[in-house]
Request: fold
Amino acid sequence: MPVPPQNVQKAARRAKKFKAEGKAKGAGTPVGWTRASQLASGENVSMNTVKRMYSYLARHEVDKKGKNFGSQAKPSKGYVMWLAWGGDPAFSWSRKLVNQAKRKSKK
Reply:
């Protein structure tokens, strides 16, 4: 099972920090916050989880166009949860692993 890279862990820790600072009110679901905790702590993740991460991030890439996406002072809910799921680094990492798995299964 893969270990999330440091930059993925850092993004998830940032989301948890926003939550601790009260800047994530109403953001996310229990699943999203569980994922943030899992990634922030550097836990191994199953390939099924990697696929779910990729799916979530692919669906929510549109959130980057929302107001306050990227704001540190008043982060949008979309930004907070993008980070919770590992952010841009997780999108690249999960896409790479999913594509590798697809190529492997075709052989």
